[in-house]
Design a protein that fits this description.
Radius of gyration of chain B: 23 Å
Structural class of chain A: alpha+beta
Structural class of chain B: alpha+beta
Largest sheet of chain A: 8 strands, mixed
Radius of gyration of chain A: 25 Å
Mean pLDDT of chain B: 86
CATH superfamily of the largest domain in chain B: ATP-grasp fold, A domain
Strand order of the largest sheet of chain A: 5-12-11-7-8-9-10-6
Strand order of the largest sheet of chain B: 9-8-7-6-12-13
Shape of chain A: globular
Order of helices and strands of chain B: EHEHHHHEEHHEEEHEEEEHHEEH
Distance between the termini of chain A: 25 Å
Number of helices of chain A: 21
Shape of chain B: globular
Oligomer: heterodimer
Number of strands of chain A: 12
Helix content of chain B: 25-40%
Number of helices of chain B: 11
CATH architecture of the largest domain in chain B: 2-Layer Sandwich
Number of domains of chain B: 2
Chain lengths: 611, 360
C-alpha cells in the first residue's frame, strides 16, 4: 500500500481511552443495555486500559441492540476455542471482546514465545490432520451444518393453549406447553452456539494457510500488494456467488419466456409473483424461482449479525428488485455475467509472472503454498453462506417469532422489541410469561418491559448518532497477531494511518483492495435498508459491505469501506465485479457525505475528496 | 553501395545494419515495436565518413593526433581543441546537410521544431566500457542550419581531451573512429525521469523503481535534484511505496520558445507528487514493455509532455527517450529471501512464529 509523506508533528500516538469518552447526549446509562462481561468495567480500568482495542465495524458497523450481543459473544468465544483448545495455534489465542457505546471492540491475545514454541508439535498433529483430511472433514462439516439448520427450522414458538389436551392426561405426559417453549428457546441459543463453533472449525486454519503464502510472497517480493496475493488464491466459482448467479439466471429466463414486462414493474413484490403465476409459461418461471429459493435465497442483505437483517427468502421484494435491474440491463444489451474467463486468465497471468521471477526451488515452494491456499480458500468464503446467511437467517427468523409471541402477550410495544433485552433477560421474560400462563394470572413483564424498552430504544438511537473511534488506547509497536492481520486487516501500517487521519483533514487512505480508478458522487450506506437509495454511477461508501449486496454492484462505480482487509467481503466482491475498492479507511463513512464527489483509486488505496 | 545519410526512427530499418550507433539503434527498435518514442532520425556513420573523407579532414586529424603525448595535459588540450576547430569550421558536405535538413523538416511543419541532438557512437554503452556522457548533447536546437551545426559539433566532441584519453586508457583504437548522431524532437516535459526494472536497493526483480521530477529529466539524471521516488509492483503495476521529495527547480522551455530555462518551482507544486497514480502505472508499464522486449533488466529515460492532459485517453502520455541494459544487479546474485520452505502445517507454524520477529 502507498505510504505518502505523512505529517510528522501534531499527530496522535494513541487512541482515546474508553474510560474517558463521555457518552453521546441522551445515551447516559447505556451500560445497562449490555452484559457485564462485555463492558469496560471501572474495576478493570488498569488492565483494560493497558490493552489496545480495535473497533470491529467490519462485522458490527452499527450500534448493537442488547440481544444482538450474541453475535460478538459467540463468535469471539468460538474463534478462541479453535486457536486455544482445538488446534493450539502457536502464537495466537482468541480475542477479547467489549462493547463500548454500542460498538464492538476486540483485543487479540497473543501467546508468549516459549509457550508458542511448545505448542508446535501438538499444532502440527492436530492441524496437520485437518489439512490432510480437508475434503472428507469438510463434507462432514456440511452435513453437520445442514443438520443444525434443520433443527433450527424445526423450532416452533406458538401460542400457549388454554388447557393442555385431554389425550395428554390419558397418556400421563405430565408436562405442559411451556416445556416446549422454554426448551425451544434454550435449543435456539444452543443451536446458534453450535453454528458458530462450526463457523470457526475450518476458518482459522484456512487463514493460517493463507498467511503462510502471504508471508512468503512478502519475503520473495518485498512490498508485494496484498491484492496480488489475494488474486492468486481467489476462486471464481464459489457458492457464495450462487445467490446472485441465480438472480441472473432468473432474469435471463424471464426474457426467454417473454415475462420481462411483468418483472420490470416499479417496486416489485408478492403481487409480481401473483401476476407471473397467471401469465402463459409463468408457471415455468415460478418453478425456477422456487428451485432457486431453497436454499440460495437464505441470503441476507446484511451480514447475519443483526436481527433486522432482511433475508431474500422472507422478503421477495429484495430478489425481485435485483432481478428487475438485471432484466433492464439485459434489455439494454448489457452482459450481466461475471467475467469468469477474464478473471481466471488474469489470475493465471499474475501467478505466472510472479512465478517467473523466482528460481526453480522457490517456484516449487510458491506452487506448494499456493496449492494449499487455493484448497482452503473456498471454505474461507463459502462458510459465509452456510453460517452467516443460512443458519443465522433461520436463527433470527425464529427469534423474531418468539419476540412477536411475547409482543402479543403485551410484553413490548413493537413486534421485534425483544431485541432490546439481552438473551438472558429474554429467558427471564419468557419464564415470566410461562409462569403467568401456568398460574393463571398476568405476568409482570407487560408492566415492567414497555417503559424499559422505550428507554433502551432512546439510548440505542442516541448511541447511533456517533461513529465509533477506529481503536482505543495505545497501539502496540507492531501488530504481529496473525488473525488481526488476515481477518481484520489490522496492520501496523493501518494503525499509523488511522492515527494520521485523525490529525489531518485531507484525503483518505486505506488498503488497495481492488484495482482501478473511478470518480463520482458518494452514497453513504450505513445499513442494508439504505441500499434502495443507491443510484446508477454512485460510489458506495459504507462502514462495511456484505457479499449479498452484490446486485447493487451492477450500479455503482466503486466502493469505499471503513474497515476490512483485502480478503474482506467488499474486496472480494469488487474484484469479482471488476470495480475499484479501497477498504479499511477507518472513517470514510463519517468523513464523506452523500452527494460529495470523490475519486477512488483502488490501485493506490486512496480516496480523494473532489469537493 | 548506396550511402544513406539519415535513417528515420520510424523507417523500419534494420537497426543492426543501419550504421546508426547504439543509442539510435535502440530508438529504432523501440519505435519499430510500437513503443511511444518521440519522432526523430539518426545521422548515420556514413554521413560522418562523408564529412571526414570528403575534403581530407581525416588525414588532417590523423596528423594532428599522431604522436600525441597524453601525459602532457596542456598539450593534449591544445591539440584536441585544434582538431575540434578543424571539424566545426569545415562545411558539412552538401548531400549530408541536405539529407539532415530534409529529415529535420519532416519532424515539424514550421521547420523550426525544437530537437535534441545527441551523439550515438558505435562504441558508446558497450557492456564493458561505458562511454556514456562522454560526448556532446545539444538540447532545444531549432532550425535546419542550427541542427546541421549541432551534428557537426557532436562529431567534433569525439576529440575532447577527455574522450581521447579515455579511449586510449581503454584500448579503443583511433583508427576507423566513427559516430552517428541522433536528432529527436524535444519533449517539453511537464514531468520526466528514469525507471529501472529492478529495485536498485536489493535487486528485487518484481519491482520497477521510478525517479521523477518536474520539467526535463536532465537535472535529475545528473543528480542535481532529489526526485520523487516510486516503487512499483511489476506484475500489477501498482505503486507499493511512494516517497515525495521537495522539488525546488525545474528545467523547462522558455515561454518565448527561445530555449530552456532553469526556474524555481512555485511553493504549491514543490511537495506535490509529480506523477499521478495513473501515470506511475504508465511509466512502469513502459519500462516493463522495454524489459520484456530485450529480455533483461533495463534502465530507461522517459518524459510526459506538458501538453498532454490529465485525462487524455488519446495517444500515449509517457514517451520513451532512451533505454539501456541495467548493469549492476544483472551481474550480481540477490540475497536469498528467508522463506519457510514447503507448504503445510510445519511451514505454517514456522511462519506464524516468525511474525513477531519480522518488521511489519
Amino acid at each position: 500500500m502507498a505510504t505518502q509523506s505523512r505529517p510528522s508533528s501534531g499527530q496522535r500516538t494513541s487512541f482515546p481511552s474508553p474510560y474517558e469518552q463521555p457518552a453521546p447526549e441522551g445515551a447516559e446509562g447505556w451500560q445497562s443495555l449490555y452484559p457485564y462481561n462485555m463492558l469496560f468495567q471501572p474495576e478493570r480500568r488498569a488492565v483494560d486500559e493497558a490493552k489496545f482495542w480495535f473497533c470491529d465495524s467490519q462485522h458490527w458497523p452499527t450500534v448493537l441492540k442488547p440481544f444482538e450481543t450474541i453475535g460478538p459473544e459467540l463468535s469471539t468465544k468460538c474463534l478462541g476455542q479453535f486457536n486455544t483448545r482445538h488446534f493450539l495455534v502457536p502464537p495466537a489465542n482468541g480475542v477479547e471482546c467489549r462493547i463500548h457505546q454500542g460498538y464492538v471492540y476486540h483485543h487479540p491475545l497473543t501467546v508468549e514465545r516459549d509457550e508458542a514454541a511448545a505448542r508446535v508439535p501438538e499444532f502440527r498433529r492436530r492441524a496437520g490432520y485437518y489439512f490432510a483430511h480437508w475434503d472428507a472433514l469438510l463434507d462432514n462439516w456440511k452435513r453437520k451444518v445442514l443438520t443444525t439448520i434443520r433443527e433450527l427450522e424445526a423450532l416452533r414458538f406458538t401460542e400457549l393453549p388454554d388447557v393442555q389436551p385431554y389425550e395428554e392426561i390419558e397418556r400421563g405426559v405430565g408436562l405442559d406447553a411451556t416445556e416446549t417453549l422454554l426448551g425451544g428457546y434454550d435449543q435456539l441459543l444452543a443451536l446458534c452456539h453450535r453454528a458458530w463453533q462450526y463457523h470457526f472449525e475450518f476458518l482459522n486454519l484456512g487463514y493460517a494457510a493463507y498467511l503462510d503464502l502471504f508471508q512468503a510472497c512478502g519475503q520473495w517480493f518485498p512490498g508485494i500488494p496484498d491484492q496480488a496475493v489475494a488474486t492468486m488464491v481467489q476462486g471464481v466459482d464459489m457458492e457464495l456467488f450462487r445467490p446472485d448467479d441465480e438472480l441472473k439466471r432468473l432474469a435471463k429466463l424471464a426474457v426467454e419466456l417473454g415475462l420481462e414486462h411483468l418483472l420490470t414493474v416499479p417496486g416489485p413484490g408478492q403481487d409480481t409473483l401473483d401476476a407471473v403465476a397467471l401469465a402463459p409459461r409463468g408457471r415455468d418461471w415460478l418453478d425456477a424461482w422456487e428451485a432457486a429459493r431453497d436454499p440460495w435465497f437464505n441470503f441476507t442483505s446484511g451480514n447475519g449479525f443483526y436481527a433486522d437483517d432482511r433475508y431474500w427468502r422472507d422478503d421477495p421484494a429484495l430478489p425481485l428488485g435485483y432481478i428487475r435491474d438485471y432484466v433492464l440491463r439485459l434489455r439494454r444489451g448489457e452482459n450481466v455475467d461475471r467475467r469468469v474467463t477474464e478473471l481466471v486468465a488474469e489470475r493465471d497471468r499474475i501467478t505466472g509472472e510472479y512465478a517467473a521471477l523466482l528460481d526453480p526451488a522457490q517456484r516449487t515452494d510458491l506452487e506448494a503454498k499456493l496449492r494449499l491456499a487455493r484448497k482452503v480458500y473456498p471454505y474461507v468464503e463459502n462458510h459465509n453462506f452456510y453460517i452467516e446467511h443460512w443458519s443465522m437467517g433461520v436463527f433470527w427468523r425464529k427469534t423474531r417469532q418468539l419476540s412477536a409471541l411475547l409482543h402479543r402477550a403485551g410484553f413490548w410495544p413493537g413486534e421485534s422489541d425483544m431485541l432490546y433485552l439481552t438473551r438472558d433477560e429474554a429467558r427471564g421474560a419468557l419464564f415470566d410469561f410461562a409462569s403467568g400462563w401456568a398460574r393463571g394470572s398476568a405476568p409482570v413483564g407487560p408492566d415492567h418491559w414497555p417503559p424499559e424498552v422505550e428507554r433502551r430504544r432512546r439510548i440505542v438511537r442516541a448511541l447511533a448518532t456517533r461513529r465509533p473511534e477506529p481503536a482505543l488506547n495505545r497501539p502496540p509497536a507492531a501488530v504481529t497477531e496473525p488473525f488481526s492481520i488476515m481477518l481484520w486487516g489490522i496492520t501496523s501500517e493501518q494503525v499509523r494511518s488511522w492515527l494520521a487521519d485523525c490529525a489531518t483533514t485531507g484525503d483518505l487512505r486505506g488498503l488497495a483492495a481492488s484495482p482501478g480508478r473511478a470518480d463520482g458522487p458518494a452514497r453513504i450506506v450505513h445499513s442494508p435498508a439504505e441500499l434502495d437509495l443507491v443510484r446508477d454511477g454512485e460510489i458506495l461508501v459504507a462502514p462495511v459491505t456484505a457479499p449479498s449486496w452484490a446486485p447493487v454492484f451492477g450500479r455503482i462505480r466503486a466502493t469505499v469501506t471503513d474497515i476490512g482487509g483485502v480478503m474482506s467481503h467488499a474486496a472480494i466482491v469488487c474484484r469479482e465485479y471488476s470495480l475499484p475498492a479501497v477498504t479499511g479507511t477507518g472513517s470514510a463513512s463519517t468523513r464523506i457525505r452523500t452527494g460529495q464527489r470523490i475519486l477512488v483509486d483502488g490501485t493506490a488505496g486512496t480516496v480523494t475528496l473532489l469537493d | 553501395m548506396t550511402h544513406q545519410h539519415t535513417v528515420a526512427f520510424d523507417s523500419g530499418a534494420d537497426p543492426s545494419t543501419a550504421r546508426v550507433g547504439g543509442k539510435c539503434a535502440g530508438l529504432l527498435t523501440m519505435t519499430g515495436c510500437g513503443i511511444p518514442v518521440p519522432p526523430g532520425f539518426a545521422v548515420t556513420t556514413d554521413a560522418f565518413d562523408a564529412m571526414l573523407d570528403g575534403g581530407g579532414l581525416r588525414a588532417e586529424i590523423g596528423s594532428l593526433s599522431a604522436g600525441l603525448d597524453l601525459s602532457d595535459t596542456a598539450g593534449t588540450e591544445r591539440r584536441t581543441a585544434e582538431i575540434r576547430r578543424l571539424v566545426t569550421e569545415r562545411p558539412v558536405p552538401p548531400p549530408v546537410a541536405m539529407a539532415v535538413t530534409a529529415a529535420y523538416q519532416v519532424l515539424g511543419d514550421a521547420g523550426d521544431v525544437p530537437v535534441a541532438v545527441r551523439s550515438s557512437a558505435a562504441t558508446e554503452d558497450l557492456p564493458t566500457v561505458s562511454f556514456a556522457g562522454q560526448y556532446d548533447t545539444y538540447l532545444w536546437v531549432r532550425g535546419a542550419d542550427a541542427v546541421v551545426d549541432a551534428v557537426r559539433r557532436c562529431w567534433a566532441s569525439l576529440w575532447t581531451a577527455r574522450a581521447v584519453t579515455y579511449r586510449a586508457a581503454n584500448g579503443v583504437s583511433e583508427q576507423g573512429l566513427s559516430m552517428a548522431v541522433g536528432v529527436q524532437r524535444m519533449v517539453d516535459a511537464r514531468t520526466a525521469g528514469v525507471a529501472l526494472t529492478v529495485n536498485p536497493a536489493d535487486g528485487d526483480p518484481s519491482k520497477i523503481v521510478i525517479d521523477a521530477g518536474w520539467g526535463l529529466g536532465g537535472p535529475l539524471v545528473s543528480g542535481e535534484m532529489t526526485p520523487d521516488n516510486y516503487v512499483v509492483d511489476k506484475v500489477l503495476l501498482v505503486p507499493v511505496r511512494t516517497t515525495v521529495s521537495p522539488k525546488h527547480h525545474e528545467l523547462v522551455a522558455a515561454p518565448d520558445g527561445s530555449g530552456l530555462v532553469r526556474r524555481a518551482v512555485e511553493e504549491a507544486r514543490r511537495t506535490v507528487p509529480c506523477l499521478t497514480p495513473a501515470e506511475v502505472t504508465e511509466v512502469a508499464g513502459l519500462a516493463k514493455n522495454v524489459e520484456r522486449h530485450y529480455g533483461c533488466p533495463q534502465d530507461i529515460e522517459w518524459a510526459i509532455a506538458r501538453t498532454s492532459t490529465a485525462d487524455g485517453d488519446s495517444g500515449p502520455r509517457v514517451l520513451l527517450l532512451q533505454a539501456r541494459p541495467e548493469t549492476f544487479w544483472s551481474r550480481r546474485p540477490r540475497a536469498r529471501a528467508a522463506v519457510v520452505p514447503g507448504a503445510g502445517v510445519s511451514s505454517i507454524a514456522d511462519t506464524m512464529l516468525g511474525l513477531g520477529t519480522l518488521p511489519t
